[in-house]
Task: structure prediction
Amino acid sequence: MKVTVAANGSRGDVQPLLALARELRRRDHDVVVGVPVNLLPLARSCGVDAREFAPDTADLLASPVVARDLRSRDPRTRSRAIREVAEFGAATMDDRLLEMADGADVVVTGPLGQERGATVAEHHGARFTPVHFCPIRPNRAMRVPLGPLQAIPPGRLTGAMWWAVDRFYWRSSARGADDALRGRLGMRPADGPLGGRLAAAGLPEIQAYEPGLVGELADEWGDLRPLVGFVDLVDDTPEARVGATEIDDWIDDGDPPVYVGFGSMPLRDPVASYGHLLDAIAPHGRRVLLCAGPNGPAARDAVAAAGPAVEVRVTDAVDHRRVLPRCVVAIHHGGAGTTAACLRAGTPMIIASFSADQPLWGRIVAERGLGATLPVRALGDAPRLRAALATALTDTCTNSARSFAAEMIDVRDSVGRAADITDGTAGSRL
Result:
């Protein structure tokens, strides 16, 4: 079987699809993976046939579209931002996906650009399998993660709101670009949102997150949207082992530290943000492992300004699986990948959310007693930040996080189930 995987977005969006691609390759399938140019080294370190598919996502993450518009409470502004994110480099990606998917039996994508991924699959006569990292389809079990709609409790009204949001996104963000691509390929326009079309065709959409976090959603969606657990690489890549010994030695040379890391998300004022965090942590006498990523110089400036009040080790990247189980608390942005890594490690967390699915995971983590949450813009609110840290450091929160970790689906089973679904319905079509 030939499988084309189109992985777009940040590392948290791409890494689960690399894990799936590796498992499919292990099963002797012919697999080609398209990734953003900045993630080619990661993809190739996984031993898959990786090709440049999308532009550097760091440019997009640093743009006002992500830093400002995607966080807006105005649904029109957010919708426009979602469209710009989905269409970032779209023309080039369409051409490359059409080439990569020629002769494919299955086309797999994440949430970004999935409508056009489905169109390319249909054009080539291939089956389409999307992989979702959070709930995005209409349902009655989950609150709608948008502004005041979050106040509506699960139930029939929530289902109606999800349906309305789904239609709004289709009409305002997805349909235009999809219609243009379908017209270019001589295809008729699609007749509605992708989720409904896939459900009508009996095609499953893989939900790559933990069913234990989302209540009754698994029962509501059943086999059409199977919740397989968080999907991730099951072993280290060579890239993940760079600098590992030095970080391991530092962690082992003292009490468990507080982990701070915001992935590839750029902070508006990183020196101030890190300063607020160090000020809040200092009274607890905890060391800090600060994974700065693109904010490295600012992190070092913040540490210098903080002085000797707190011991800090600054690094550019870490292997979450090895590091997080040895941390007392993790403070992060709430991306699905980092959230999953904390949950598997049994480490309480504070999610300082930026946008997209991050506030959703923050609310879920807080509601289940696995940590606390606040928007990243509230890091300067000292009482609120101190309260979140105090919650995450309690024995109750620690015990809850460890108990939940013990009940999670093993990552090997998650990857295997996702591969089984991709394998098992290769003959189905839109």
In short: The radius of gyration is 21 Å. The longest strand covers residues 30-36.
